Amino acid sequence: MYNNEDRSWMYDRLDHNQNLTSHFEEGVSRFLEFAFSQTQLLNRGQAKCPCIRCCNSKNGKWENIQEHLYKWGFVPQYYVWFAHGEDDMSYEPPTTYFGESSSHHDNVGGRYREMVEDVFGGQFQHTNYNQVEHEENPPVKRFMRKLGLGYKTFDVCVNNCFLYYGEFESDSWTACPECGESRYEPSEIKKKFIARKKLWYLPLTPRLQRLYMSRNTAEHMTWHTKCRRDNDVMIHPASGEAWKSFDATYPDFAAESRNVRVGICTDGFNPYRNSSTPYSCWPVFVTPYNLHLICACDKNELKMLWDSGVQTYDSHRRENFLMRVAVMWTISDYPGYGMLSQWSTHGRLSCPYCMENTKSFQLKHGRKTSFFDCHRRFLPIDHPWRMNTNDFLKGRIETDAPLPRRLGCEMKRHIELLQDIDFGTSRDHIEGFGKEHNWCHKSIFWELPYWEKNLLRHNLDVMHCEKNFFDNIKNTVMDDPDKTKDNMNARRDLQLLTNRRTLFLQTGRDGKLYKRKAVYCLSKEQNIKVLEWLRGLRFPDGYASNISRCVQMQHLRLAGMRSHDCHVFMQRLMPNAFHDFLPDSVWGPLVEVSNFFRALCATELRKSDMEVLQSTIVVTMCKLEKIFPPSFFDSMEHLAIHLPWEAKVGGPVQYRWMYPFERRMFELKRDAGNKARVEASICEAYVMGEIANFSSHYFEYGIETRANRLNRNEVEMDQNNNESTISIFQKRGKALGRGRTKHLTLAEHQAAERYILLNYPEVDCWLRLFDEQMCMGVPENEIESRHNSYFVEWFKEAVYSGRYDVDPQIRGLAYGPPRSEGMKSKASLLDWRRAEGLWNGLVIHRRSHTPHRRSHTPPEPPYHLLHPRFLHVDARHSLALMLNVIPMMKTSRCALHQMTDAREPVLLNNEGMMMQQAE
C-alpha cells in the first residue's frame, strides 16, 4: 500500500518547458509496480489504464499504460487507486500543488470547491472530500419526481389475457384467473415478487393539465378555432367533416374551445439492433390536436375525462375551467388498424369499408387474396366499362352500385350481437369469422359513449399505403425476380381469370413453360438507364435522403428504400423515371397514381377536390386492372379507393399519418439504454424529457432551450431592425463568407423591377386596377405582354399622382433605386457565385462546394428570400426585391413542371434537382 505517500506528483506531469518531470516518471513506475503486483485484478496480464482517455475502463500492458500516462496524465482525483487494489480510505490528498502543470484538470477540484463553499457558506466544513460519503439518489429522485409527472406500472399475464388492475392489483392474485399462468417469476426469496410481464402507464390527465400551466402553450390550445377558412378549404382537422359533425352532435363540448380532442396511435418496434430477436415493444401515443403528442392513455381515464372532466387552471386567461377530452380517431399501420378496431386486416374480408360485401377472392396458384376487378362497382352506373367482359374478369359484367358508408350505430348493433372471446393467445374465433365477418373481438373503444357518433374512427395510414403501392409498381415494372407481382404463378392465375392471351404462358421447344416479357416491364438495358439516372440524382440539402444508396447495379434493382424514399419517388420521380421506356397506355395510369398521392398529401385540401379525386382514382384503378395481373392488386392497392373520403372527413393527411410517430419511435428506441429493462428506461427518459420541456418555458429570454431552439439552417434575426411590412423583408437570412460587389446594368435593373412588381402580393391590388384601366378589350393572349411593357411606368405614375392613398413603403417601392446619368444603377449587391449563406431555412453553397456531394443546393440562391440588412443598397426597400429576377433569367433552359402546391419543390429535369423548400 502507498496510502501514506505524497501523491501530488500525479498531477504535476509537465514542467515549464513542457517536459515530463522526474518525480512524475518515478511515481508512474511505482504505480505500475503496485498495479501489476495485484495479480488477482489482472486480466490476462493486463491492468486497467487510469489515463484521462481510458478512465479505468480499458485494460493495457505495462508499456501501453506508461505511454498513456506520459501522454495524457491520470484521471482527475485518482489519489486512491481503488481500481488497482487499494481499499483503505485513510489517504488525504494534498491541498496545495507544487510546480506548474499543463493539464487542464489540475484546478478542477479548486473551482468546484469554491462553488460548493459559495453555496453552503461556513456550514460545509468537510476538507477531505474523498472521505465524504456520497449521498444516494433518493433525495434527487424525490426532487425530480415533483417536477415530472411520473408513471405507473401494472402486472400483466404473460399470455396477454389478464391485466392486474383495480381490485386485482394486490399480491394475493398470484396466478392468472383466465389461463392459470403464474403472475411472478420463480424466486427463492419469498418476500420478493417480480412480475413476469408489466404494462407501463403514464397518466394522461396531469399531462393535459400541464399544457395549460404555461402561458406559452395555453395560448395556443385554442388556435384551432381561429384557423378555419371558408367551408371548402381544409388546413387542419378542425376544418374536416368529422370535427364539425362532432361539434354539432355535442354542442356543450364544442362550446368550450379549451376542451381537448385527441388521436391515439400505436405501433410496435424492436428495441434491439438484432432484428432476429423476437421482442416487440408497443408504445401508445395520445396526440392532442391542439398541440403535440403525449405518451399513453387509459380507457377508464378517457371515460372520466369525457363524463365529468377535470378542473384545470388556464394560465393564459388566468382562470379555472372544466377540461373535457374526446378521442377523435386512431392512427396506425394496417396490422395495427386490425388490433385497434378488432376487424382483422387479413384474408378475403380484410377491407374495413367493404367488409363482408367485398368481391375479393383468393388466387388459386398465388395463394394470396386479390382485389382484382373490385373497383368497377364504384364507377357511375352508366359507365361503359361496367359491361366490359374482356379486359377484366372474363365473361363478367358489373351491375352492383357503390357501397354506402356504414354508420357507427349500425356497426355497434352488429358487434353487440357477436359472442364474447377471451383475450390472450387463444386462437378461438367468433362464429362466422372469415366468411360472414372479420371481427376478432369487441373493441374497447365502443365503451366510449360518443364513439359510435364519430364519422371517422380509425385512419388508414397514407404513409404505408403509398409505400406498398409504390413497392408493387417498382418491383413489377423493374421486373425484380424476387418481388415482382408478375411471376409464373401470377401468369397461371391470369390465364384462368382473364382473356389476355398475349400474357399467357408459352411452351418452349424443350417443353418447359416460360412467360413473355410484358409491355409494363422494363428490359435489362432500360433498367440500367433508370438506375444510372437514379445513382446520379442529387437533391437539395434536407429534402430527401440519398436514394442512390438503394441502387444495386449488380442485381439491377432498388433495395432498402424507406417510407420517405418511396414518398419522394412516387410523387416526384416516377413520371420522369419511366417516361421514355413505357408506352403511354402504361405510363399514363402510373402518372395518374403519382398525381393522386401528390394531391392527397397536399398541406391544404379542398373538399371539392377530394370529391373529384374520389372519382378519378376509381377510373385509375380500373385502368391499372386492364394492365397488370390479378396478383398485383392486394389490399393496399384497394385501400386507395377509400383515402379521398377519409381526407374529406378528417382533413389533411399530415395530421393522420404515421411519419411523426415513426420518428418518435426512433427516438424511443434510442432512449432504450437498458436493453434488459426496455420499457422502464424508455419511461424514465420520457419523464426526464418532460421535465426539460416544462422547465424550458421558465428560462429568461435569450437562453436557448428546447422550446425556442431554431431548426436546422434557421437564423435568428433582430426583429427591431426590420420595420418593413412588405413580405420580402420578413425573411430570415445570414451571409456566410465574403462576396464580391457588383453593379446592376440597365437591363438587369428593369427586369428585376418588373419581376418584383408583377409577383408580390402587396402590388396585386394595383395590378387589378391596371387591368381595369389599361386592359379592357385586350385579347387574353396579349395581357401578359401589356403587363411587361407598361405596368412599371403606370404603377409609378399612379403612386405619385396623388389620386390614391398610398402606403409609404409602397411609395418607396415605386421610387426604385437611384440611377446615375449613365443609366447605371447605383445599387450594389453581393455576387452570390462567390458567397454562401443561410436563407429562410435553406443553405446556399457555391457550385464548387457540391460537385462531389450527394446533396445539392439550388443552381442559384433564392434571392427572393434575402433580407435587406445583408445587401449593400441605397434604396433599401426596392433594391433588395430586385434580386428576384436573376435566378429566373437563368432557368429558361430548364423544364419546370407546374406544382399543385406553391409551397412544394420544383423539379428540374436537366439537373435532376429541386428548388425551394420541401414540405
Can you characterise this structure?
The protein has five domains: 8-129, no CATH class; 146-201, no CATH class; 203-333, no CATH class; 462-659, no CATH class; 719-915, no CATH class. The chain has a five-stranded mixed β-sheet with strand order 8-7-6-11-14, with helices on one face. The protein is globular. 32% of the residues lie in helices and 10% in strands. The longest helix is centred in the last third of the chain and has 20 residues, at 780-799. It is an alpha+beta fold. Pfam families: DUF4218 (PF13960), Transpos_assoc (PF13963), Transposase_21 (PF02992).
Strand order of the largest sheet: 8-7-6-11-14
Structural class assignment? alpha+beta
Oligomer: single chain
Q: Total number of β-strand segments?
A: 28
Biggest β-sheet, characterized? 5 strands, mixed
The radius of gyration over CA amounts to 35 Å
The helix content, as a percent range, equals: 25-40%
Low-confidence stretches: 89-112, 116-134, 820-834, 859-919
Cα distance spanning the termini:
67 Å
SSE arrangement:
Blueprint (H helix, E strand, L loop, with lengths): L21 H16 L9 E2 L10 E2 L1 H11 L35 H13 L17 H10 L4 E4 L42 E4 L3 H6 L4 H4 L14 E2 L6 H9 L1 H5 L4 E7 L17 E5 L5 E2 L3 H9 L2 E5 L4 E5 L1 E7 L2 H8 L19 E2 L6 E2 L37 H9 L41 E2 L2 H16 L10 H10 L8 E2 L5 E2 L9 H12 L3 E2 L10 E2 L4 E2 L4 H15 L6 H17 L4 E2 H19 L9 H4 L4 H8 L8 H13 L6 H19 L36 E4 L3 E4 L2 H14 L4 H11 L5 H20 L8 H8 L12 E4 L4 E4 L2 E3 L10 E2 L19 H4 L5 H5 L16 E3 L4 E3 L4
Parallel strand pairs: 6-11, 11-14, 17-26
Antiparallel strand pairs: 1-2, 3-4, 5-20, 6-7, 7-8, 9-10, 12-13, 15-16, 18-19, 21-24, 22-23, 24-25, 27-28
Helix pairs in contact: 1-2, 12-15, 15-16, 16-17, 17-19, 22-24, 23-24, 24-25
Protein name: Putative transposase
Pfam families: DUF4218, Transpos_assoc, Transposase_21
InterPro entries: DUF4218, Transpos_assoc, Transposase_21
